[in-house]
Write a structure and sequence with these properties.
single chain, about 160 residues, mainly alpha, 5 helices, about 0% strand, elongated
Length: about 160
């Protein structure tokens, strides 16, 4: 049974490593996570260091909290990027272990471009259903309905 709650959808979209993810959501979610995590890191910095930043912390007794929150944001960002990458690898019918290519200089750039531009496997593969196929089915249903309506209108005339 699929979880339809907001938090279930967020978990499925950003933290789960199962299933497939096509190019557009991969790119959009990656940009969104990068933007949000960067904004949160800057916000934390300005909360604890003050604005404009000075050489002294505004709240030196809470440095530990600043560091802990920053580490939390960092770890969540890494995990979300990892889960998006694994599901994108699944869409091109590769194991999530292929993400380890991202640790090799120069090859990581080529692998990243491959994941961005390579079209996913058409139809079902061993990692799940085609995420775009559902859209195609809906479009075919809409086209069939429009065709039937057109034929009915044509018969009336």
């Amino acid at each position: 049974m699929e979880n339809k709650s907001f938090f279930g959808a967020v978990f499925r979209d950003y933290f789960s490593c199962s299933g497939r993810l096509n190019r557009k959501p991969y790119i959009c979610r990656g940009i969104a996570v990068t933007f949000v995590s960067t904004a949160l890191a800057f916000l934390l910095f300005f909360i604890f260091a003050g604005f404009p930043p000075s050489r002294q912390y505004k709240y030196p007794e809470y440095v530990w909290l600043h560091v802990a929150l920053f580490i939390l944001i960092f770890v969540l960002t890494i995990w979300i990027g990892f889960s998006l990458g694994v599901r994108r690898c699944h869409d091109v019918e590769k194991s999530g272990w292929w993400l380890l290519l991202g640790l090799i200089p120069y090859i990581n750039v080529a692998w990243g471009l491959y994941l961005i531009f390579k079209r996913g496997t058409i139809g079902q593969n061993k990692y799940g259903d085609d995420p775009i196929r559902n859209d195609y089915d809906r479009i075919e249903d809409i086209a069939d309905n429009l065709k039937e309506q057109h034929e009915k209108n044509f018969e009336r005339k």
